[in-house]
Specification:
The chain is mainly alpha-helical. It has a domain of about 80 residues: Orthogonal Bundle (Cytochrome Bc1 Complex, Chain D, domain 2), CATH 1.10.760. Helices cover about 45% and strands about 0% of the residues. It is built from six helices and no strands. It starts with a helix and ends in a 15-residue tail after the last helix. The structure holds heme C (HEC). The site of heme C (HEC) has 23 residues, from helix 3, helix 4 and helix 5.
Length: about 140
């Protein structure tokens, strides 16, 4: 559009274009309650993990809370663990563990589980395991 704002305002002054000029002059209203942007995965493994496991293994998810209670707060968040073994992850996913239900091949294929387990077992390698919390007396 090449019509300039002053021209529109001039036309509006004449009469019938007043509502249009007002609409053009107003800034767009802010979106009410914009959804938070989802975290951007940095690798294929993280993407599949977020897709299939985020529901329970995000911060404050039931998986995270249960693990934090059982193994200490530093071990709650699966994606931050440096000590997970791929075989263990696969066994837990297929068999379930306490309140984690088993997840079948329709929900998560063998290839997807391979990708997730490999990512969980390797992407934090080299990081020191979280220090054990001080013993409670
Ligand atoms: C419906 C919720 C739910 C979903 C979905 C879920 N989990 Fe879990 N997960 C849990 C809970 C709850 C625990 C804690 C069980 C316990 O320790 O009693 C857990 C524990 C685990 C553990 C054990 C960690 C440890 O140190 O012992 C692994 C590994 C794990 N989940 C992997 C996964 C993966 C991989 C996925 C996605 C394919 C996944 N989970 C999806 C709820 C879930």
């Amino acid at each position: 559009m090449t019509i300039r704002l002053p021209l529109l305002i001039a036309l509006a002054a004449i009469g019938s274009l007043a509502p249009l000029a007002a609409a053009v002059a107003q800034p767009a209203p802010a979106t009410p309650n914009p959804a938070p942007a989802p975290p951007k995965p940095r690798s294929a493994g993280e993407a599949v993990f977020l897709d299939k496991c985020r529901y329970c293994h995000v911060e404050m998810g039931p998986g995270t809370l249960t693990l934090a209670k059982r193994l200490g707060p530093e071990n709650g968040l699966l994606a931050a663990r440096p000590d997970l073994d791929a075989g263990y992850v696969k066994a837990v996913v297929r068999n379930g563990l306490n309140t984690m239900p088993p997840i079948n091949r329709v929900e998560v294929s063998d290839a997807e589980l391979d990708t997730i387990a490999t990512w969980l077992a390797t992407h934090n390698k080299g990081r020191k395991p979280a220090a054990k919390p001080a013993k409670k007396r």
